[in-house]
Amino acid sequence: MIRDHLYDVGLRQRRDMFGPEGAEGQVEHTTDLNDKIQDYVTRYCFGDIWQRDGLSLTDRSKVTLAMLIAQGKSHELRIHVRGALANGVSVLELREVIVHSTLYCGIPAAVEGLRALEEILIERGLPSTVDDESASAVPAGKETR
Questions:
Q1: How far apart are CA 48 and CA 33, in angstroms?
Q2: pLDDT tens-digit profile of 81-120?
Q3: What is the value of pTM for the model shown?
Q4: Mean pLDDT of all residues in 8-14
Q5: Do residues 84 and 124 touch, judged by C-beta distance below 8 A?
Q6: Which stretch of DSSP H or E encloses residue 27?
Q7: 39-46 contact pairs (CB < 8 A, 24+)
Q8: Is residue 112 a contact partner of residue 72, using CB atoms and an 8 Å limit?
Q9: Mean pLDDT of all residues belonging to the chain
């Protein structure tokens, strides 16, 4: 891999979003088999595209999550939930991206998105309560008149 400005910026972005294990950890485990992809991801994905003007990092994270939900990429989804939290996306915003994806991607995709979000919240010791909407829900057959 060639170390240049794009590579350095990309590695720094990966570190900011995914911590050392998502940056140096990936680079240190680069082999002849995966070096081209690691270089591409570091240099062009995070060193170029994620640095462009026009969308904030939080917006890029939300768009990325929506696309990963649509594609059913559960492993990458979990990685990018972590990155979205690091980029300042709130748990409420993450939940709403997932709920919105139900309309366009279907229930199974949205459920997988929620599973990923719940796993990462548990992993990070973060609460899953975002707006107390569930506390105000009335169980079916228990409507008040």
A1: 23
A2: 999 999 999 999 999 999 999 999 999 999 999 999 999 9
A3: 0.85
A4: 94
A5: no
A6: helix 24-28
A7: 39/1, 39/2, 39/7, 41/10, 41/14, 42/1, 42/7, 42/10, 42/11, 42/14, 43/4, 43/6, 43/7, 43/10, 44/6, 44/10, 45/10, 46/9, 46/10, 46/11, 46/13, 46/14, 46/17
A8: yes
A9: 91
Stated length of the chain:
145
Q: Give residue for tokens 């911590």.
A: 19
DSSP codes joined into one string, 68-132: HHHHT-HHHHHHHHHHHHHTT--HHHHHHHHHHHHHHH-HHHHHHHHHHHHHHHHHHT----SS-
Q: Residue 108's pLDDT is what? A: 97
Helix axes 74-86, 107-124, angle to 10 degrees: 50
